[in-house]
């Protein structure tokens, strides 16, 4: 559908319109999105794949984590050549800037399924790009936690779209 030079027509039928409208309504109903509560701690989950990066902003509601916002984007051609740790760190940098209005000035929990990033602020980093990104995160107050990949389903899915 998006290949240059190959014209494809999308037939938008009545049933497609109905499905699209139903999906839009479902995405904003409980428990799909929670209204943000500035008094509660935010949880930011990020992930990267070879094609994109994704993030989910969550908050606790009782015993469960409910999403406040979803975000994802395709990697640029040059970014696709980054090492895995750089892609995962890019996902964090991008997500923190995307959700800055919620995260700046408050402590939040940053969850990633890429364990080497946990030691990014503790170890000596020789990679200039990673060092620059680590420095850009210094104004934020967060705890970095490693989670299992199966617990990071939302961000993982968004990184693969």
UniProtKB/TrEMBL annotation:
Keywords noted in UniProt: Endonuclease, Hydrolase, Nuclease, Nucleotidyltransferase, RNA-directed DNA polymerase, Transferase
GO molecular function list: endonuclease activity; hydrolase activity; RNA-directed DNA polymerase activity
Pfam families, per database record: RT_RNaseH
Ranges for domain Reverse transcriptase RNase H-like: 39-140
Entry-linked SUPFAM superfamilies: DNA/RNA polymerases (SSF56672)
Keyword Transferase: yes
Name used for this protein in its record: Reverse transcriptase RNase H-like domain-containing protein
Organism annotation: Pinctada imbricata
